[in-house]
Amino acid sequence: MAEMSSRVQRVADQIQRELASLIQMEVNDPRVGMVSVTAVSVSRDLAHAKVYVTVLNSLTEDSEINDSTLSEPGSLDKLEIEENINALNKAAGYLRSLLAKRLSTRSVPKLRFYYDSSIERGQQLSSLIDSALAADQESHS
Fold first, then answer.
1. What is the rounded distance in angstroms from the CA atom of residue 38 to the CA atom of residue 19?
2. Gap between the Cα atoms of 123 and 121, Å rounded
3. Who contacts 14 (Cβ-Cβ below 8 Å, separation ≥6)?
4. How many angstroms separate the CA atoms of 135 and 141, rounded?
5. 50 near 114, Cβ under 8 Å?
6. Which CATH architecture has domain 2-140?
7. If we measure between CA atoms, which residue out of 36, 1, 9, 7 comes closest to residue 118?
8. pLDDT for 42-70, tens place per residue?
9. Chain Cα centroid distance, residue 133
10. Can you tell me the distance from the alpha carbon of 66 to that of 69, in angstroms, rounded to the nearest whole number?
11. Which of 15, 85, 87, 134 has the least CB density, counted as fewest CB within 10 Å?
């Protein structure tokens, strides 16, 4: 039993590494911006893989457009996130075929992409802690 779970974990880790480079190099969809693959969860039978990604704000060359259209770093428009996830799910078959050429497994799992909001929540918690510490410091001064 432990042998199978470690094998599944190794496959998930390899899929994560390969997808990170494939998304950046091979996906030409303009809806896909800067995407980081944070985790991959593979089913025990290696038939399905949940791919968790975070979406980063992408900058253009015009700083005025960046200032007017981009939200604060770390906070993204939900529509932008949905567009990226939908585009990745649409490209899942293509990515799966490219992945099949790079993996040495008999079958390649079906890919499904999900947004990973853990980094965003971590930043919110960190800012709450910082503001609480600053308020505590002011009250003791």
1. 11
2. 5
3. 103
4. 10
5. yes
6. 2-Layer Sandwich (3.30)
7. 36
8. 999 999 999 999 987 654 444 554 444 44
9. 31
10. 5
11. 134
Residue with tokens 């981009």: 70
DSSP 36: E
Task: Compute the chain's Rg from CA coordinates.
Answer: 19
Q: Regarding beta strands 48-56 and 110-115, do their DSSP bridges make them parallel or antiparallel, or are they unpaired?
A: parallel
Write the pLDDT tens digit of every residue in 119-133: 777 888 888 898 888
Give the DSSP per-residue string, 112-135.
Answer: EEEE--HHHHHHHHHHHHHHHHHH
Give pTM, 2 decimals: 0.73
110-115 vs 34-42, strand pairing mode: unpaired
Closest CA to 73 of 33, 41, 120, 115: 120
Q: What is the mean pLDDT of residues 34-39?
A: 91
Query: Domain boundaries in the chain?
Result: 2-140
Q: Which residues contact 23 (CB under 8 A, 6 or more apart)?
A: 32, 35, 37, 88, 95
Q: Which pLDDT belongs to residue 62?
A: 46
